[in-house]
Automatic annotation (TrEMBL):
<protein>
    <submittedName>
        <fullName>Amino acid adenylation protein</fullName>
    </submittedName>
</protein>
<dbReference type="Pfam" id="PF13193">
    <property type="entry name" value="AMP-binding_C"/>
</dbReference>
<dbReference type="GO" id="GO:0044550">
    <property type="term" value="P:secondary metabolite biosynthetic process"/>
</dbReference>
<dbReference type="GO" id="GO:0043041">
    <property type="term" value="P:amino acid activation for nonribosomal peptide biosynthetic process"/>
</dbReference>
<dbReference type="GO" id="GO:0005737">
    <property type="term" value="C:cytoplasm"/>
</dbReference>
<dbReference type="InterPro" id="IPR045851">
    <property type="entry name" value="AMP-bd_C_sf"/>
</dbReference>
<dbReference type="GO" id="GO:0031177">
    <property type="term" value="F:phosphopantetheine binding"/>
</dbReference>
<feature type="domain" description="AMP-binding enzyme C-terminal">
    <location>
        <begin position="33"/>
        <end position="98"/>
    </location>
</feature>
<dbReference type="InterPro" id="IPR025110">
    <property type="entry name" value="AMP-bd_C"/>
</dbReference>
Length: 108
């Protein structure tokens, strides 16, 4: 399946496929759900989450540093809140034009 949401204009936005699932703190987490919440923030252009060394790390593309922990706490259960939030100026893309998650893993 796909992760989709309506924006404020009633347009349907597709955030990706539901296939990037992890098990963290005894819960199954779809990383795309966290990314969809982050992407709903007005100052975030794009986001990606990875799971590394038993930590959930959220990367976001924005022109400024943002306090996202409080924003996510309003929209996600506690076990889905990232351990850290990392701002990037621009995501590295793979040959298919998608965010290169391997590069993100090297950045932390």
């Amino acid at each position: 399946g796909d992760i989709v949401a309506y924006n404020e204009f009633g347009e349907l936005l597709c955030y990706g496929r539901i296939d990037n699932q992890i098990k963290f703190k005894g819960h199954r987490i779809e990383l795309g759900e966290i990314e969809a919440v982050l992407n709903s923030h007005e100052k975030i252009k794009n986001s990606a989450c990875i799971f590394k060394d038993d930590k959930l790390i959220a990367f976001y593309e924005s022109e400024e540093e943002l306090d996202l922990k409080g924003f996510c706490k309003q929209k996600l259960p506690p076990y889905m809140i990232a351990s850290s939030f990392v701002r990037v100026e621009k995501f590295a893309l793979n040959a298919n034009g998608k965010i290169d998650r391997k590069v993100l893993s090297e950045w932390v």
